[in-house]
């Protein structure tokens, strides 16, 4: 079998890349280890930046997002027993973020790809990439009992943080920059009415986050020890923890409901540089991981593949690889801004095991400054809405 661009992974990065390439008349082929039902139901991101919305709208895949997504004008920082609103919409002159679940974006992109005859091989097994240091890269895999070799011009490694593409690059060809945080997030999905607010709460018992997926489906998190386990948290204990961390003198409260999912998410920052080796390009979580505090991962994945699609279009139009050679440097500028922002938000809002009272005073001072200074609030808003420069 042969294609122009072999894409490993049908997450937001891989699917959006296939969509952008199709619009430019470039053929691609997607391999995905999971089933269609599984990728279309895994709950992950929800905060979608304006630039992602704009790209989806400009390329004709934002119909449902624009109808069913919920625009959010800002976020609340909750500390000192009160909510403090950061009005992102006002500060950014009308730019804001949209709430629309990642798995709904996946459904929209899978449908768009299949509607134009795109090839996605779900439940592919034993996927291997090779020869990307030549002009004839290969992807081999098993599908429905058959061993298949796919010849291609380029490989896009869009296979997320646990994928295989990154690990096949010779270790001497890249540098890894990473940081592991000394806590995780305990996440729940609950059938409960929306609190109508996106709240980042700093509390002496630890960080908590209130967010919505739909008016009746809430995604909420609190920080836990990285060695904690879901089994330690019966529903009553979870709700008691949320109420304790979100209590306050302002009397603000929220409604609990039926918990339909519980998980623990590790907190890590990670970047590989460069994001390309020969004719293989890494995009999205395969190349960088961001703690979810800044809500950036999906948005960066989409920004990466826009650069990659532009570089590939230039190559197929001219035969020249100059644009592709700048792929990493174009992506990394925005990635490092997002890495810094997410690290900054994480550092300001969480309790660290080795914190002393001095550091906690500094965190509170930073929160008060951010909530009361136009310059500080503007900086948060600019990064939250997505800084592309
Ligand atoms: C709790 C949480 C909340 C988040 N909130 C936000 C948010 O609000 N906003 C935001 O922007 N981001 C958020 N993120 C991050 C976001 O979900 C990820 O950054 C995003 O999924 C990255 O997309 P991707 O396509 O690069 O990778 P993935 O979504 O991980 O997709 C990779 C795909 O590759 C497949 N795959 C893996 N290995 C192979 C293989 N060997 N062969 C073939 N296929 C393979 C996987 O099955 C998967 O389908 C959040 C993440 C978490 C965990």
Describe this structure in words.
The protein has twelve helices and 20 strands. It has 389 residues and is α+β, with helices and mostly antiparallel strands. The strands form four sheets. The protein has an eight-stranded mixed β-sheet. A hairpin with a 2-residue loop joins strand 10 (138-143) and strand 11. The longest helix has 23 residues, at 327-349. The structure holds flavin-adenine dinucleotide (FAD). Flavin-adenine dinucleotide is lined by residues 8-14, 31-34, 39, 44-47, 102, 124, 127, 158-160, 162-164, 187, 265, 284-285, 292, 295-299, 301. Flavin-adenine dinucleotide (FAD) is lined by residues 8-14, 31-34, 39, 44-47, 102, 124, 127, 158-160, 162-164, 187, 265, 284-285, 292, 295-299, 301.
Q: What is the general shape? A: globular
**Count of beta strands:** 20
How many structural domains can be distinguished in the coordinates? 2
What is the strand arrangement across the widest sheet? 6-5-14-15-16-13-17-20
**Rg from alpha-carbon coordinates:** 21 Å
Q: List segments where confidence is low: pLDDT < 50 over at least 5 consecutive residues.
A: none
Beta-strand content: 25-35%
Q: CATH homologous superfamily of the largest domain - what is it?
A: FAD/NAD(P)-binding domain
* CATH-derived architecture of the largest domain: 3-Layer(bba) Sandwich
| Ions and ligands | flavin-adenine dinucleotide
